[in-house]
């Protein structure tokens, strides 16, 4: 499989080089030359396959030739060694729980896969790799955990000061060793911009071997297809495929779902469930793409004003807005609506979503009101405890803290404050590495 840059000014690369580079030299995102289409029988008989076999079959065509199949099987097995259950909330709506991994968020799948691929490729290199990553909350913790203590790898996480939850901040600032956090006095988009600029700074990249662990990196983005197909395995009504509502910020997750759909996965419709940061729903309505400064909300991991993966979504649909609209509808949900649906779902169905899941639930409910024969699922992208400061006042109860993170919450934060300014990042990196 070859990958091309969406800016079309850089040479094609294979999976190994795309993973190591993170982003193409012309600042474009890498995109696969062909999208594999799986046989109908694979999806028709999906219950027959183990989770590992499903994940392996999905990812193998993208990796082929760069990691041998036996090593890849091992990577896949370690990546999804936790449950990904589809849980009924009511008669029409199911929750795909993606928070049973070590950092309680869907990002664990991509981060674990990428860290293992990079570990595999790094064995062949002597140089230290510096992984740069921007986070609005969940990516940072998952990448910190996935790359913790990996030999030859240093991780630098940029996060917007005061704009991630207290649990997320602990997850990305307390591990120490090879994990370093930079607290940026700006927005997630500032962090993302600084990171992207670093990759094209020749002076810096001559001295430091940099890569990205955001979904701009194909090794972070592509494995996110796994759980869409694992959801299909658990979907009972195979004659009536699900509507899938995806809480969306940087749009890597929904873009992976759309990719799986183009590869043959039965899905009735996709919903981009956004908070007040509604650049993509506005685009779907008007045809105009207008990036905006990110607005802070209670579903903070989706506080993105210029989603990186929007260009990949356009490419998937050959830039044909009509085709995209046939598959994807966008909704924007306010913080007040999020609080009230969170409470309602908890009281009425005894199911506690996190604020991102609540946005996904309400967007799905709105769509199903117009499409009465359909049923659907929302992606429950993170455990509600990660947002206990929002959730507890809404439901008037304490959210029990899972054992997986109890000890980490007692550790002290270690971070360096920096301005939302590329020169500040460059100076920090040159000084440290
Ligand atoms: N929602 C993200 C923002 C970065 O997204 P990514 O998938 O490109 O890493 C976060 O939680 O940090």
TrEMBL record:
Keywords: Amino-acid biosynthesis, Lyase, Pyridoxal phosphate, Threonine biosynthesis. It catalyses: O-phospho-L-homoserine + H2O = L-threonine + phosphate. The modification N6-(pyridoxal phosphate)lysine is found at residue 107. The keyword Nuclease does not apply. Its cofactor is pyridoxal 5'-phosphate. Pfam families: PALP, Thr_synth_N. It is an enzyme of class 4 (lyase). InterPro entries: Ser/Thr_deHydtase_PyrdxlP-BS (IPR000634), Thr_synth_N (IPR029144), Thr_synth_N_sf (IPR037158), Thr_synthase-like (IPR004450), Threonine_Synthase (IPR051166), TrpB-like_PALP (IPR001926), TrpB-like_PALP_sf (IPR036052). Residues 96-370 form the Tryptophan synthase beta chain-like PALP domain. Pathway: Amino-acid biosynthesis; L-threonine biosynthesis; L-threonine from L-aspartate: step 5/5. The keyword Zinc-finger does not apply. Its EC number is 4.2.3.1. It comes from the Bacteria. GO terms for molecular function: pyridoxal phosphate binding; threonine synthase activity. Residues 2-79 form the Threonine synthase N-terminal domain. GO terms for biological process: threonine biosynthetic process. Belongs to the threonine synthase family. This is Threonine synthase.
């Amino acid at each position: 499989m070859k990958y091309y840059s969406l800016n079309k000014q850089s040479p094609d690369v294979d999976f190994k080089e795309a993973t190591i580079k993170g982003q193409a030299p012309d600042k474009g995102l890498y995109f696969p030359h062909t999208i594999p289409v799986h046989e109908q029988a694979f999806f028709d008989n999906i219950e027959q396959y183990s989770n590992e076999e499903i994940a392996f079959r999905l990812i193998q065509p993208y990796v082929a030739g760069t990691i041998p199949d036996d090593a890849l099987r091992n990577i896949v097995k370690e990546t999804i060694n936790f449950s990904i259950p589809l849980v009924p909330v009511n008669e029409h709506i199911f929750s795909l729980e993606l928070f049973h991994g070590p950092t309680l968020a869907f990002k664990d799948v991509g981060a674990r896969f990428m860290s293992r691929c990079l570990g595999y490729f790094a064995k062949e290199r002597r140089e230290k790799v510096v992984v740069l990553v921007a986070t609005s909350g969940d990516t940072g913790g998952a990448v910190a955990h996935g790359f913790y203590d990996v030999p030859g790898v240093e991780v630098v996480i940029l996060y917007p000061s005061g704009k991630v939850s207290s649990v997320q901040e602990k997850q990305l600032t307390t591990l120490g060793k090879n994990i370093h956090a930079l607290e940026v006095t700006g927005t997630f988009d500032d962090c993302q911009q600084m990171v992207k600029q670093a990759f094209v700074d020749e002076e810096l990249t001559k001295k430091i071997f940099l890569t990205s662990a955001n979904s701009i990196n194909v090794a972070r983005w592509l494995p996110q297809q796994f759980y869409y197909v694992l959801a299909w395995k658990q979907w009972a009504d195979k004659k009536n495929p699900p509507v899938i509502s995806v809480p969306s910020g940087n749009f890597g997750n929904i873009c992976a779902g759309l990719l799986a759909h183009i590869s043959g996965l039965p899905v009735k419709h996709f919903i981009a469930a956004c908070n007040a940061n509604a650049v993509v729903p506005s685009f779907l309505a008007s045809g105009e793409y207008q990036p905006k400064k990110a607005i802070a909300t209670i579903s903070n991991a989706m506080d993105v004003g210029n989603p990186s993966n929007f260009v990949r979504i356009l490419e998937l649909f050959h830039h044909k807005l009509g085709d995209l609209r046939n598959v994807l509808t966008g909704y924007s949900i306010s913080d007040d609506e999020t609080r009230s649906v969170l409470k309602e779902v908890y009281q009425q169905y005894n199911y506690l979503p996190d604020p991102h899941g609540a946005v996904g639930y309400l967007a799905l409910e709105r769509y199903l009101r117009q499409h009465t024969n359909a049923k659907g699922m929302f992606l429950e992208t993170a455990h509600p405890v990660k947002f206990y400061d929002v959730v507890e006042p809404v439901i008037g109860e304490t959210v029990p803290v899972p054992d997986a993170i109890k000890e980490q919450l007692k550790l002290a934060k270690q971070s360096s404050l920096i301005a939302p300014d590329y020169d500040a990042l460059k100076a920090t990196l040159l000084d440290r590495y």
